[in-house]
Design a protein that fits this description.
mainly alpha, elongated, about 40% helix
């Protein structure tokens, strides 16, 4: 005698997928790389704003905003480095991300 299978008759039941082991989330970039990229982007924006390079991409009236956004990006990089230096996690301890990432939305706000 065959055991009864739940589901519709005539259709084979799909095998269940094995569960993935739960691992702690890892950030793709470490904090030093984040700070380096923020600094490079800020320096590039400041360079474009201080020279006439920005005129290729935006109108001349946006120069003060470019300078401000470049300074904010460099400040965010400095704050990330400071946070990482000041709050080094102990081995095996989870740590929070720095709260300076909200500064990235300032250049785009009206």
């Amino acid at each position: 005698m065959k055991p009864e299978r739940p589901g519709k008759p005539g259709k084979p039941e799909k095998p269940e997928k094995p569960e993935k082991p739960v691992t702690p989330s890892k950030s793709r970039l470490n904090h030093q790389a984040q700070a380096a990229l923020l600094f490079l982007l800020g320096a590039t924006v400041l360079h474009a704003g201080l020279t006439d390079l920005h005129l290729r991409y935006v109108k001349s009236g946006l120069r003060p905003l470019l300078l401000l956004s470049g300074a904010v990006l460099i400040a965010a990089a400095a704050a990330t480095v400071w946070y990482e230096w000041r709050h080094r996690p102990h081995s095996g301890e989870q740590h929070r991300e720095p709260r300076v990432s909200w500064l990235l939305v300032l250049p785009s706000s009206p």
